[in-house]
Amino acid sequence: MRRLLLTIGVFIASCGIPLDDAPEIVASESLPEVLQPGTSTTTTVPDRLAEDIVIYLVNPGDGEPSLEPVERQIPSVDAADGREEAVLEQLIVGPTSEEQLELNLTTAVVSSEDAPLEVLEVDQPADQQIVVVLSAPPAIEGSDRLVTFAQLVFTLTELDTVSSVRFAVRNEAGENEDISVRTDTEEGDVRRAVDRSDYLSLFPA
After folding, report:
1. Residue 169 neighbours by CB distance under 10 Å
2. Which of the chain's termini has less CB crowding within 10 Å, N or C?
3. What does the domain layout of the chain look like in residue ranges?
4. How far apart are CA 6 and CA 22, in angstroms?
């Protein structure tokens, strides 16, 4: 405290402000309003801005899985600044331990050391349509591959800026190539933009 007071005193003296030899009593009515007795000041630091989002996990049911919406929070960002990427990161993390144990929720969007699922880029070439560039096609096959794409599509189209999604991977030449996407329509695997209508059998109950 002494060092602080000394520093302040030196600063005041250097500014040419005369210093009294002894403390002077100042009447309370002469003080600024913020220093009046009984006046308190509060500095409010806002919490980090965040927004609620919805991701879709899997309810196994009795052998007939369906998607289940659950809430998450992400830092509030504009779509152009990576909002879609932030949503996908939450989906890749998967269910919490509580969601697994109490709600029996699972996920087919799996990222592991053996088969990491990495989002390299999200582009929006057309209104309401985005392209998600993955590091590699999802390694899961069979019915789980259908569920994987359904989770991705439902989660992304929960955003008001997205209604359909195309999926691609980056080849060795650094170019993006569309990949085959599993649907539960008569078309089966497609190389086009997909939306929720391509996964009607997995609609949330």
Report:
1. 16
2. N
3. 2-35, 50-202
4. 15
